[in-house]
# Entry
Amino acid sequence: MKRVSKYKLGVPPFGFDKKLRIFIDPDLLQYDEVWTAAGK
# Structure
C-alpha cells in the first residue's frame, strides 16, 4: 500500500486511479453496511 498511496497503514483500498487487488474478510458479507476508517 505504501508504494501506491505513500501511506503504510490505515488507507482504504478505494478511490485510487490504479486498479488494486482488494482482499476482504468474507465474514463482512453478513452485514448490510460496512464502514471503513483511515488516518495517520
